[in-house]
């Protein structure tokens, strides 16, 4: 059986490009060594460049100067040193826009409606002594190109150089408009600095959406203007609250790095902690045994049949959403526990007086929260249950996140909703770390096993979909639920694994040489971005012994 | 089936002691709040105290001052503030030895032969205004008592206090003499600072042995006096080498913290990298496919049938071991690949000329390496294969590490060897993190699933052993093999999980109240030491949502 399995594995043939993540959709590289001139500089050939573009260029220059990553080969590029003496030199990089429109800030471009952003770029890195040229239709595209350019450079004995010049990338545009990462900051809290560092790493692999699952039943670390009592009574402590200034800081930081912050206020479930400040709005708060009332402790859900609670929730969501530039906002909608409402006398009385079923009341509730978003010109995002398990009226352009199983994407597509892939069986970064519920000596995580980068990388965004349905796929993301995570392991549990989906949804199914994406050719490049991340202060973990990282293919299952 | 399973789980009843890891074998606590006097000090009532005891006391005072850990309860102890105003005060702690012998340094006590060390201590923390008293037979015992004392203190609004005074611990001595942690620094390199931080954390939970798997087939990061070429050609880089000074630094640092450094030079397998400097001593170096010649890449083993190689290996081990104070030294001996020797013409010629079988040659080789240790007064340690899979003559006092399966302990015991439990099915910290071999899209780690702290904690050191055989069990350890680990995740993959075995082998099977050790009562205490580790700069991960950590038992599978 093992023999039969091994026979199916194709021997790995390295691509020419041993770097670049995600790999551009078009890419031609050479084998010439090219060193940066000591006077190397990046010229912004843009009239009145926005400050965040100027800052991005500064960061790029900093990375090129400070990464000092040696090539991941035996000898670490020491053999290049002699040849570098006579190698051609790159005097600079010139970046410019392809149209004469007044340039908008990266931050402005990054938060445009999904599907309308211009993220493509073209890049040539010549070996004839002339400057490299990066062009795009937008500052956002220029930023994407800068993150590619940054990954071309290595260090050997103090010389910064590329070993794969000339490089030609023509119109590298993403295969999917949504490339995300989700972080849960409610089960355990993450300081602003951890989020910013995560946003940096996201931007390095061209992830463009930060899905911020900011609150949940365990804590409410968000100070909402007009609702200060929710965080003051629902956060873990006064120092574990995101203030309005923190939110703006994070949103600005993200947008300047091409990342749109899509916040989620999960409703009506996952809201128990609101009872600390508003017990009138929460059914079955901390009801026992929690297993009867919720998927995890503590139980507690918004009283969706109550007009007062509905108004409260819509006002709360409006107050949060109006401070955010993103066109997307998630109202959640997962894991509704009907027994909670069946046992809640107020909900039963509300249903009786309105003559509605629970499903009808849920639809009314959801329409109200969604109206608070559409009134602000925003598009609602929901978890899959809202379309697969309930009969809720949703705006046609609602975005649906598939999480329970990748196989549910087809069902969502059959209802003609747009899809973001977030399946637990491929993309949940928390799986496989053991049971976090107490007093369960032999338990493991509900979504065992650990989702390896390889497993994630083999995800097919179009599996089970008809050709006509493919346009419904906006993209996808990996996710970190934080029951067993905290600032102590955010880097190591996320990176480099979350780069898997970044390449799936930027590069698509096909490598630039026309072959299918595969874990064999991906690994050396994933090593490269991992070592680069470490150089930049993100604690991305080793994927193999260093010995193997220096010898692509040699540590393959069948080398 | 689920129902039947749940019915077996006993509802958790919290012990009085919500702190202390490992929990002392004898412990009486009260419910009185006791605050530290502003003039609190620790008096060393020892004539001519050794400097490392003085330093240990300074560290204890530092932890008490700087931990500033709030109680893990709802409100974080804010409710204690009012009562603390009139609470009794502890003026100091006096530490003294129970005999009048001239005190030896902790570092001296820590490296005595296994089973001969005096690690016990007694501690009383009164509420009558008098000082606490810590006594022991040795400075090592005093150090163990200090680490217990450190864990009693919390912060509320700037007041340092205990909530469980008075405390009385009478003769807390470890159930097992060997309580270890193993780190592999060969698959990926760990700088000295990471090792020291790990040693700190180990000492906080009374782990007393650092099993240092320092070299392997992938790299040889050890500069051996007389053999500088092995590291200079076999380390990953010139900066990834432990110099003799580094080794002495680490050994001294460990010993001053009650930790004996037991180094391992794994032989004759796991030695491929030696071929970089001594190709004459290595058979099947990097032979392909590696699967035919080794358990993992690269292949390469010492030519055990060669007299020259045997002499080289014995000299190498002697040169390493003589610089180490530990009485234990491991020569490894796992995963010998016989096909490698069958295909190695030199080995076949050597066997032919000597008239020995491979097994006989292995015995000769091993006796030579072990003689190099016994000549230095040291005891050899080997992996289980040396007694279970081979017919090697070993010194009677050889210590055998059981790793393949916990069920093999009985077989080792039946051969009357002393045992250190290191079973992969309970104690391997690397399991469950996915396949590290390349080009294996659906692979998982060979020892899936992840070994949860709960699984590790349920290990029974005496399982399968007769009463008479129990004395053969020296203790056990958790282990980090570093194929997928690096400085980026050492803290998060090790802590707090490795504290599981620390308590198993200190406390034994029974809690101080006479009940059996169990994961239900362990969790709140494990949270406590985890949060304390984080306060001290060790990035131990969250085990649950913070909400659950503040509510012992409420997030149990059946709360």
From TrEMBL, chains A, B:
A GO BP entry: glycosaminoglycan metabolic process
Residues at the catalytic site: 335
InterPro entries xrefs: Beta_hexosaminidase_sua/sub, GH, Glyco_hydro_20_cat, Hex-like_dom2, HEX_eukaryotic_N
Catalyzed reactions per annotation: Hydrolysis of terminal non-reducing N-acetyl-D-hexosamine residues in N-acetyl-beta-D-hexosaminides
Enzyme Commission number: 3.2.1.52
Signal peptide: 1-19
Cellular component per GO, a single term: membrane
Domain spans labelled Beta-hexosaminidase eukaryotic type N-terminal: 20-152
Keywords annotated in UniProt: Glycoprotein, Glycosidase, Hydrolase, Signal
UniProt xrefs under PANTHER family: BETA-HEXOSAMINIDASE, BETA-N-ACETYLHEXOSAMINIDASE
Family: Belongs to the glycosyl hydrolase 20 family.
Protein name per its UniProtKB record: Beta-hexosaminidase
Taxonomic lineage: Eukaryota, Fungi, Dikarya, Basidiomycota, Agaricomycotina
């Amino acid at each position: 059986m093992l023999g039969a399995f091994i026979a199916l594995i194709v021997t790995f043939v390295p691509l020419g490009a041993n770097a670049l993540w995600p790999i551009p959709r078009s890419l031609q590289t050479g084998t010439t060594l090219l060193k940066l001139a000591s006077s190397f500089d990046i010229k912004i050939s843009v009239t009145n460049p926005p400050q965040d573009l100027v800052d991005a260029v500064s960061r790029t220059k900093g990375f090129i100067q400070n990464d000092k990553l040696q090539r991941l080969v035996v000898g670490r590029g020491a053999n290049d040193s002699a040849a570098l003496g006579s190698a051609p030199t790159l005097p600079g990089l010139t970046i410019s826009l392809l149209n004469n429109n007044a340039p908008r800030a990266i931050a402005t471009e990054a938060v445009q409606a999904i599907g309308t952003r211009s993220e493509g770029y073209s890049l040539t890195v010549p070996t004839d002594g002339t400057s490299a040229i990066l062009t795009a239709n937008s500052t956002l595209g220029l930023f994407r190109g800068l993150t590619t350019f940054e990954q071309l450079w290595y260090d050997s004995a103090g010389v910064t150089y590329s070993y794969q010049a000339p490089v030609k990338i023509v119109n590298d545009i993403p295969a999917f408009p949504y490339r995300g990462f989700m972080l849960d900051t409610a089960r355990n809290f993450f300081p602003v600095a951890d989020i910013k560092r995560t946003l940096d790493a996201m931007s390095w692999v061209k992830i463009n959406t930060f899905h911020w699952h900011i609150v949940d039943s365990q804590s409410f670390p968000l100070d909402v203007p007009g609702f200060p009592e929710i965080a003051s009574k629902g956060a873990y402590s006064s120092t574990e609250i995101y203030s309005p200034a923190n939110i703006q800081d994070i949103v600005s930081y993200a947008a300047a790095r091409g990342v749109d912050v899509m916040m989620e206020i999960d409703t009506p479930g996952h809201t128990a902690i609101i009872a600390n400040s508003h017990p009138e709005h929460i059914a079955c708060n901390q009801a026992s045994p929690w297993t009867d009332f919720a998927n995890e402790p503590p139980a507690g859900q918004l009283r969706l049949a109550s007009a007062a609670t509905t108004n409260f929730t819509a006002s709360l969501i409006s107050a949060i959403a109006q401070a955010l530039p993103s066109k997307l906002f998630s109202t959640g909608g997962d894991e509704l526990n009907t027994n909670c409402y069946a046992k809640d006398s107020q909900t039963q009385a509300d249903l009786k007086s309105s003559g509605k079923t629970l499903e009808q009341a849920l639809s009314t509730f959801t329409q109200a929260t969604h109206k608070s978003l559409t009134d602000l010109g925003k598009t609602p995002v929901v978890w899959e249950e809202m379309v697969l398990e309930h009969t809720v009226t949703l705006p046609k352009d609602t975005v649906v996140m598939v999480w329970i199983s990748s196989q549910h994407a087809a069902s969502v597509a059959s209802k003609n909703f747009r899809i973001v892939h977030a399946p637990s069986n491929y993309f949940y970064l928390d799986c496989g770390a053991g049971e976090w519920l107490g007093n369960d000596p032999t338990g493991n995580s509900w979504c065992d096993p650990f989702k390896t980068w390889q497993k994630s990388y083999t995800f097919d965004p179009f599996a089970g979909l008809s050709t006509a349905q493919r346009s419904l796929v906006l993209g996808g993301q990996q996710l970190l639920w934080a029951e067993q995570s905290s600032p102590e392991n955010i880097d190591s549990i996320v990176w480099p694994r979350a780069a898997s989906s970044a390449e799936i949804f930027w590069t698509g199914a096909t490598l630039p040489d026309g072959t299918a994406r595969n874990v064999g050719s991906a690994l050396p490049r994933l090593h490269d971005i991992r070592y680069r991340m470490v150089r930049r202060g993100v604690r991305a973990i080793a994927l193999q012994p260093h010995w193997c990282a220096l010898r692509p293919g040699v540590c393959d299952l069948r080398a």
